[in-house]
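Closing statement on the MU-OXO-diiron sub-project.
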Amino acid sequence: MAINKRMEDALNEQINAELYSAYLYLSMATWFESKNLSGFAHWMRGQYLEETMHGMKMFNFLNERGGRILLKPIKGPDTKWESFVEVFEQVLNHEMMVTGLINKLIKLSREIDDYASESFLMWFVDEQVEEESTADEILSRLKLIGNDTTALINFDNELKTRQPTALALAAIMDQPAV
Ligand code: FEO
């Protein structure tokens, strides 16, 4: 069944929100690079990839449902922050805002009896729990670290180990994850 116009519009908006998230995290990556914290920058690059994957999962779903994808302008992200804690406060607040957007989409899918979209969107509900929890964890670590430079460098090294997920690459290329 062709996708309902309201859901088509809402998913197009969400694709834009996900790509904006990617852009925001890429901006944070460059900020960390300017501070020579390559582990944090690396982690943010991973986040950029994950958000691109979220947008592309929606893009692929809308395509499959016969919807028309209309890419909109992506607004410019912030480019500087006062502290490491401030960066991750923004990440956490941003993720909580995105959770609200996903919840609204699910509400809409229920209103219009679009069970295919509801089922698809449930993946994002679980994903948001993880996204919020990770942001909160890093924020708490940074608050504990405070002005301890050695601890900050150790944490930076820890964040260098993040690997891109096969799922991210598969969604971006519209191929099965291997
Ligand atoms: Fe795509 Fe981090 O929400």
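Helices lie at 5-34, 38-64, 84-111, 115-145, 149-159, 166-173. With this model delivered, the sub-project is considered complete and its resources will be redirected to Aim 3.
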